[in-house]
């Protein structure tokens, strides 16, 4: 028998033996417990994760057999108020319409299918058929009358029903008093991922919508209660097994705080004596997530304080920029990648340090006149670094700590000066930038050797000021990144003024010819955001395998951090995985 693969690390579920970590279901009377098969089977079966591209949603009735009480499938219990089946031979037990399909997650791996390969042993075909509409109605209206209900392990949000055939025994003893009705709960109807939310994405959430989005607590199941964090951990473990990254962290937040966080795989695998698992304290190289998290936030914060204005031209902040080629290059256009500058250039190839960078940036020829078209530009954020330091009168690291990290309580967890012992591993030998420089026909002999840890992967950021720059260089934990996203979601005044946040949240997008709004990418169905996010969503990605997206309509902050370059770059495209992560994160309750 091959050895069992290690369980994914779940932050909110303590590992205390195999039975608690995986969960057992009680077998039939006189028989031993039913043990789920396969690594992390207890998490995977209940996780309800997303399928690979092209996989359909699971069919209604594909779940494990759950025993329903009398009346669970009654016609009069279905939404829409159809006529009752009373007097026509008793309650109906068939006729599921698939109405509960959107309540299920979608599966990433066939081994995770409830009742499928690796599932439980109860395979009676007649018990697989589910009356989803009846189940949903019974959940809303309260428990079914009749027989005793026995909880069995099942997908998240589903409860076991009564054992069939027990209704007669209950009737012989007399009816049980009807349970008091539950208080009404306001809950937005679930729709197909992104369908109605995208249609309503223009205006964003109304005032007070965040409080109205509260959801009832997840129901516990018998054995091991699979939490949202366990679902995310199983999802991340699939990415590790698929070779997308060595390790990863994920966090999902709502208006009131973190809803789930999970970790899987290794933060560092090399050097061998310095290996470490990913965990809550791991600091990940955020790469270009630095642009909105630090660049946008600092520029807008200084604008709130009156130290600069978005309409200021870059020439205000240095003699080197007072040239005709920079005429019309404003801070807003730099933030939104509309300054017409080149996409990337290794400034260090012409000299390291701030002074050398200023000379190099002043000599770069633009690719388009300012404001004519959108051209994603890393050098544009190197220019913003100069403007912010000039306006603030101090280095970027101290300004970020004072204006962003300290007010949100994130000092040390979101920083330009990370502790190397906490950092996820980086790339070996600067391999990616070596290739880029070679393709440009340039040569440079100062590349780092060995696996880089605790230093910015981005060469321009590292060689400007030891990783202190607005184009890249920031390190952070998944929870810390989510907290910044949540501050934008709720308009936290500790970060920015309400009017400034409203401008960030203002819908833009490619339909308006603006793929960026103040440094944030407008989420699109074909991009990393995916079709599950509303059109009001915004976010950003990072070259090292990181992303943050905020959906104001759904009230969700979705953070996925990984070390896809460690110890060597992986060619796999993370876009499909990010899209599935967003679907899974939006489905959490």
What features would you describe in this structure?
The protein is an alpha+beta fold and 589 residues long. The chain has a domain at 60-181. Helices cover 27% and strands 10% of the residues. It has 18 helices and 13 strands. It has helices spanning 18-22, 41-47, 125-128, 132-141, 167-173, 195-199, 209-212, 228-241, 290-304, 331-335, 354-363, 378-392, 396-405, 431-439, 459-465, 478-490, 498-505, 575-587; strands at 247-254, 257-268, 276-277, 284-285, 414-415, 425-428, 451-453, 475-476, 516-517, 520-522, 538-542, 546-551, 556-562. An eight-stranded antiparallel beta sheet has the order 3-2-1-13-12-11-10-9, sandwiched between helices. A three-stranded antiparallel beta sheet has the order 4-8-5. A two-stranded antiparallel sheet has the order 6-7. Helix 2 packs across helix 8 (228-241), helix 8 (228-241) runs antiparallel to helix 18 and helix 11 (354-363) packs across helix 12 (378-392). The protein is globular and about 60 Å long. The model is unreliable at 4-225 (pLDDT under 50).
């Amino acid at each position: 028998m091959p050895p069992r693969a290690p369980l994914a690390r779940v932050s909110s579920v303590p590992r205390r033996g195999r039975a608690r970590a995986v969960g057992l279901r009680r077998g039939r009377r006189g028989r031993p417990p039913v043990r789920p098969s396969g690594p992390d089977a207890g998490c995977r079966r209940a996780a309800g994760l997303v399928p690979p591209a092209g996989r359909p949603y699971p069919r209604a009735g594909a779940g494990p057999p759950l025993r329903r009480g009398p009346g669970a499938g009654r016609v009069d219990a279905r939404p829409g108020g159809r006529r009752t089946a009373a007097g026509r031979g008793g309650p109906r037990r068939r006729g599921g319409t698939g109405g509960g399909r959107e309540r299920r997650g979608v599966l990433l791996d066939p081994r995770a299918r409830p009742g499928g390969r690796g599932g439980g042993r109860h395979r009676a075909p007649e018990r697989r058929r589910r009356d989803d509409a009846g189940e949903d109605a019974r959940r809303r209206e309260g428990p079914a009358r009749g027989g005793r209900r026995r909880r069995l392990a099942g997908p998240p949000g589903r409860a076991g029903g009564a054992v069939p055939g027990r209704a007669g025994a209950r009737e012989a003893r007399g009816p049980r008093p009807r349970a008091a009705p539950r208080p009404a709960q306001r809950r937005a109807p679930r729709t197909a991922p992104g369908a109605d939310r995208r249609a309503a994405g223009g205006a964003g959430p109304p005032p007070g919508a965040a409080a109205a989005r509260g959801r009832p607590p997840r129901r516990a199941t018998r054995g091991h209660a699979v939490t949202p964090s366990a679902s995310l951990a199983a999802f991340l473990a699939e990415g590790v097994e698929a070779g997308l990254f060595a390790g990863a962290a994920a966090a999902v937040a709502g208006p009131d705080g973190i809803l789930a966080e999970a970790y899987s795989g290794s933060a560092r695998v090399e050097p061998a004596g310095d290996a470490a698992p990913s965990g809550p304290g791991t600091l990940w190289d955020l790469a270009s997530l630095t642009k909105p998290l630090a660049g946008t936030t600092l520029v807008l914060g200084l604008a709130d304080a009156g130290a600069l204005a978005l309409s200021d031209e870059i020439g205000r902040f240095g003699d080197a920029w007072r040239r005709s080629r920079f005429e019309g290059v404003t801070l807003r256009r730099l933030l939104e990648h509309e300054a017409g500058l080149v996409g990337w250039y290794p400034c260090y190839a012409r000299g390291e340090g701030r002074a050398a960078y200023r000379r190099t940036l002043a000599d770069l020829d633009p690719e388009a006149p300012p404001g004519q078209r959108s051209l994603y530009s890393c050098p544009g954020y190197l220019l913003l670094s100069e403007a912010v330091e000039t306006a603030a009168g101090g280095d970027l690291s101290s300004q970020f700590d004072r204006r962003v990290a300290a007010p949100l309580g994130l000092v040390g967890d979101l920083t330009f000066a990370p502790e190397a012992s906490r950092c996820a591993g980086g790339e070996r030998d600067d391999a990616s930038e070596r290739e880029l420089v070679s393709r440009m026909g340039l040569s440079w002999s100062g590349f780092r050797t060995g696996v880089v840890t605790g230093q910015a992967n981005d060469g321009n950021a590292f060689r400007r000021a030891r990783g202190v720059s607005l184009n890249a260089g920031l390190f952070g934990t998944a929870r810390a990144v989510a907290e910044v996203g949540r501050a934008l979601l709720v308009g936290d005044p500790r970060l920015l003024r309400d009017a400034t946040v409203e401008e960030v949240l203002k819908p833009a997008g490619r339909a308006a010819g603006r793929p960026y709004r103040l440094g944030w990418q407008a989420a699109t169905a074909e991009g990393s955001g995916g079709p599950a996010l509303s059109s009001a969503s915004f976010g950003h990605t990072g070259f090292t395998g990181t992303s943050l997206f905020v959906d104001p309509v759904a009230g969700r902050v979705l953070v996925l951090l990984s070390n896809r370059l460690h110890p060597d770059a992986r060619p796999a495209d993370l876009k499909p995985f990010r899209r599935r992560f967003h679907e899974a994160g939006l489905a959490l309750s």
